[in-house]
Amino acid sequence: MNLVSFGLIFTGVMLNAAAQILMKAGTNAIGHFEFSTANILPIGWKLATEWHIVTALFCYGISVVVWILALSRVPVSIAFPMLSMAYVVNAIAAWYLLGEAFNPTKLVGMGVIIFGVIIISRA
């Protein structure tokens, strides 16, 4: 895999991770809600106008374009597993930015993911 291909995959992973963190920040800003017939429009409006969520959707849109570019250069059997690195990025970002728990079990799981991605990328 050349540097451009790696850069595209890395950018796609980071955009997906950013989108997830932004979605969580948006739902944190809105608070817990229940969907019901009575509140579909009010909650839908809150979701559609919450800047974190709008930015997350923008990140997803850009990531689709980046991902298409990546897939034009890298076999999907190598590229797709690399998306799992978003789990690692998200766990660290959620701990750092959102104060979510980070423990040895998550660290071991992230190590397994990283090891798996290394194995797949060398195949």
Automatic annotation (TrEMBL):
Its main location: membrane. It comes from the Bacteria. The keyword Transmembrane applies. Residues 44-121 form the EamA domain. This is EamA domain-containing protein. One of its GO terms (biological process) is lipid A biosynthetic process. The keyword Cell membrane applies. It is found in: Cell membrane. Gene3D superfamilies: 1.10.3730.20. GO terms for molecular function: transmembrane transporter activity. GO terms for cellular component: plasma membrane. It is a multi-pass membrane protein. The chain crosses the membrane at residues 51-71, 78-98, 104-121. PANTHER family: 4-AMINO-4-DEOXY-L-ARABINOSE-PHOSPHOUNDECAPRENOL FLIPPASE SUBUNIT ARNF-RELATED, SMR FAMILY PROTON-DEPENDENT DRUG EFFLUX TRANSPORTER SUGE. Pfam families: EamA. Keywords: Cell inner membrane, Cell membrane, Lipid A biosynthesis, Lipid biosynthesis, Lipid metabolism, Lipopolysaccharide biosynthesis, Membrane, Transmembrane, Transmembrane helix.
